[in-house]
Amino acid sequence: MESIRFDGRAAIVTGAGAGLGKSYAKFLAARGARVLVNDLGSGYADQERSAGPAAQVAREIVDSGGRALANSDSVADWEGARRMVQECRQAFGRVDILINNAGILRDRSLLKMPPEDFQMVLSVHLLGAFYMTRAAFPIMKEQAYGRIVLTTSTSGLFGVFGQTNYSAAKLGLVGFMNALKQEGARYDILVNAVAPLAATRLSQPTGFFPPEMEALLRPELVTPLVAWFCSEQCSVSGDIVQAGGGYFAKVQILEGRGVRWDPRQELTPEMIAEGYGRISDMRGARPFASANEQMQAALAPLKEK
Ligand SMILES: NC(=O)c1ccc[n+]([C@@H]2O[C@H](COP(=O)([O-])OP(=O)(O)OC[C@H]3O[C@@H](n4cnc5c(N)ncnc54)[C@H](O)[C@@H]3O)[C@@H](O)[C@H]2O)c1
């Protein structure tokens, strides 16, 4: 029945003391993975420390017969990230799976956003994912195997009022993934992004979900996708998938067919104004696997001139 299992694999799940991360960690452990459960133990908007949440989840895993280790370092700290990866390797001998999930919010509209709130959110989400991935990648390369999951958000993909910091960090992770998938490809290191929707402590203050919907938005409904991304059976890299409430859908960046004017002629803003309908027409839009592929498509017609 359980064709997707993680026996022999070692996983790190950041921010796994609560919410989505807790669900991922418990699921991977139940399917055979040894799991380093990381959580700073902070509030949803601060970086206060408590070792309690990570220890509690690790204990629950061990009590149900799994193997787990607790860690309360911050992902936003390079030394902490390195320590976490070392602890995983020392305890379990490998680092096969990295789920970059830890996160906080500091919502304010731009004019009320203190620079430190912008920096803090970028530090945890974007730098945190970089530090963790940077520390784990050499081990994955050595193993010629790795599965990395990044956590993006519809906030970054489509925009939310009052979240310029969070949206920037979450879409920054997509750029990080687009480059990283190319660096990982030859070592069987796959990297994908989940855009979750789940009723958690983090989603409560945003008031996004009506209380009656919370039962339908359990973190456990996001976990199957993340588990598949983390599995040997995963066959994609560089994908973004929205997941929540039983809904799963790929989100993709596409380029329209555009307009081509002869580059030897003078181009004016009036031509842009007149042609903008065609420039922004997304009929026939296509994705590109890399910037190189996009550039070749963009330059090919010029070579014919
Ligand atoms: N819940 C949603 O609907 C939703 C939507 C989009 C994206 N997300 C993302 O999903 C991820 C998980 O969020 P959640 O909803 O489960 O929230 P959550 O608050 O329940 O869990 C986040 C965990 O991260 C931990 N954390 C915070 N800073 C940390 C740090 N520096 N180092 C280590 N751990 C740290 C917190 O202590 C907390 O336990 C986040 O990246 C969030 O941005 C959630």
Describe the structure.
This protein is an alpha/beta fold and 305 residues long. The chain folds into 2 domains: 10-251, 3-Layer(aba) Sandwich (Rossmann fold); 254-305, Helix Hairpins, CATH 1.10.287. It has helices at residues 19-30, 52-63, 78-92, 115-143, 154-158, 164-184, 223-229, 269-279, 291-303, and strands at 10-13, 34-38, 67-71, 97-100, 146-151, 189-196, 240-244, 247-251. It has an 8-stranded mixed β-sheet, sandwiched between helices. Helix 3 packs parallel to helix 4 and helix 4 (115-143) packs parallel to helix 6. The protein is globular and about 70 Å long. It binds nicotinamide-adenine-dinucleotide (NAD). Nicotinamide-adenine-dinucleotide binds at residues 14-15, 17-21, 38-42, 44, 47, 53, 74-76, 101-104, 124, 128, 151, 153, 196-198, 200-203. Residues 14-15, 17-21, 38-42, 44, 47, 53, 74-76, 101-104, 124, 128, 151, 153, 196-198, 200-203 line the site of nicotinamide-adenine-dinucleotide.
Present the secondary structure layout:
Blueprint: E1 10-13, H1 19-30, E2 34-38, H2 52-63, E3 67-71, H3 78-92, E4 97-100, H4 115-143, E5 146-151, H5 154-158, H6 164-184, E6 189-196, H7 223-229, E7 240-244, E8 247-251, H8 269-279, H9 291-303
Parallel strand pairs: 1-2, 1-4, 2-3, 4-5, 5-6, 6-7
Antiparallel strand pairs: 7-8
The chain binds nicotinamide-adenine-dinucleotide.
